């Protein structure tokens, strides 16, 4: 089986020119990191964790450092991970002071009998696992502080305005034919304290089953939750649709039912992959057969050779 990895860096409004190159390089680096894990014989699970951790460390994206701020100006993050080999999954929600929520989600999967830990319990588990608590200043960027201020001013006038992208995710297929997904986010700017989105919820923020494929989602969390977007797209794949048809059908359903916008990356065990979105743009990158495909705004895909 030839390994494949696809990543996304969120779906939202058009990426401004001054950020575009940084966003492009961020998703390209993450896809290359995940692909390297796979070509060195690593599992799909290791690949999606590495790719997402790289994006969490990149301040351009809405996950880990660079997460959007809640109404109190704090970072509260959600993340989940799943192995398609045996459907094992782990997630954390509303966690604070953690550099890499995706790594904590993997620990929940592997070291507890549970699927999802939240808030204080997740913090106590992190401490017990030796995951260091990082100071708030390490996660909050100046850009996100201004973003929250702008949002608070704008809210009264135009609450439906599309927002900045940046949630991150990855799907991978390894040499053994197993798939996995990982998704991580700071959520939605100006959200209520304690708000949990789609990202830590298996079936909404992502899904992986080596009998079908894997998907990771981004977009309006409340809409994604209501349609179980990741499982919905794989349901269409199970029923024999192509990956592109499945993505169009699932995203189209969410848009027509709820006016919810978002994006999805997916792959199957044959090594086909797709990236689609109904928002203005979605940053994504795919690595397969030594080639790296990268896109940010519609119709600007570039293909290069991987090292
Ligand atoms: C404006 C939106 C579409 C931007 C998008 N947000 C998410 O994906 C948030 C995540 N699904 C949640 O609800 O917690 C992004 O960050 O790329």
Automatic annotation (TrEMBL):
The active site is at 167 (nucleophile). Residues 148-163 have a biased composition (Basic and acidic residues). It catalyses: L-asparagine + H2O = L-aspartate + NH4(+); Cleavage of a beta-linked Asp residue from the N-terminus of a polypeptide. Belongs to the Ntn-hydrolase family. GO terms for cellular component: cytoplasm. Heterodimer of an alpha and beta chain produced by autocleavage. This heterodimer may then dimerize in turn, giving rise to a heterotetramer. The lineage of its organism: Eukaryota, Metazoa, Chordata, Craniata, Vertebrata. Keywords: Autocatalytic cleavage, Hydrolase, Protease. GO terms for biological process: L-asparagine catabolic process via L-aspartate; proteolysis. This is Isoaspartyl peptidase/L-asparaginase. Residues 146-165 are annotated as: Disordered. It comes from Myotis myotis. Substrate binds at residues 195-198, 218-221. The record marks 166-167 as: Cleavage. Its EC number is 3.4.19.5, 3.5.1.1. Pfam families: Asparaginase_2. InterPro entries: ASRGL1_meta (IPR033844), Ntn_hydrolases_N (IPR029055), Peptidase_T2 (IPR000246). It comes from the Eukaryota. One of its GO terms (molecular function) is beta-aspartyl-peptidase activity.
């Amino acid at each position: 089986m030839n390994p494949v990895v696809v990543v996304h860096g969120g779906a939202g409004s058009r990426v401004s020119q001054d950020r575009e190159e940084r966003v492009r390089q961020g998703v390209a680096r993450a896809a290359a990191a995940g692909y390297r894990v796979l070509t060195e014989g690593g599992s799909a699970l290791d690949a999606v964790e590495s790719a997402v951790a790289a994006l969490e460390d990149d301040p351009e994206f809405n996950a880990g450092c660079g997460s959007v701020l809640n109404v109190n100006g704090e970072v509260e993050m959600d993340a989940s991970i799943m192995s398609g080999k045996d459907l094992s999954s782990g997630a954390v929600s509303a966690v604070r002071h953690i550099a890499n929520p995706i790594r904590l989600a993997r620990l929940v999967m592997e070291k507890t009998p549970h699927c999802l830990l939240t808030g204080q319990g997740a913090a106590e588990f992190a401490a017990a696992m030796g995951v260091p608590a990082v100071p708030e200043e390490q996660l909050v960027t100046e850009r996100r502080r201004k973003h929250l201020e702008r949002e608070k001013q704008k809210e009264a006038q135009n609450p439906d305005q599309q927002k900045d992208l940046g949630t991150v995710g990855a799907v991978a297929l390894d040499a053994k034919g197993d798939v996995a997904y990982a998704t991580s986010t700071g959520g939605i700017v100006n959200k209520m304290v304690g708000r949990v989105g789609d990202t830590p919820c298996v079936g909404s923020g992502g899904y992986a089953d080596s009998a079908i494929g894997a998907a990771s989602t981004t977009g309006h969390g409340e809409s994604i939750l209501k349609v179980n977007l990741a499982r919905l797209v794989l349901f269409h794949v199970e029923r024999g649709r192509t990956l592109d048809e499945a993505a169009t059908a699932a995203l189209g359903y969410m848009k027509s039912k709820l006016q919810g916008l978002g994006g999805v990356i997916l792959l199957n065990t044959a090594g086909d992959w797709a990236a689609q979105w109904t928002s203005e743009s979605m940053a994504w990158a795919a690595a397969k057969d030594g080639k790296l495909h990268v896109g940010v705004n519609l119709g600007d895909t570039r293909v290069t050779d991987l090292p």
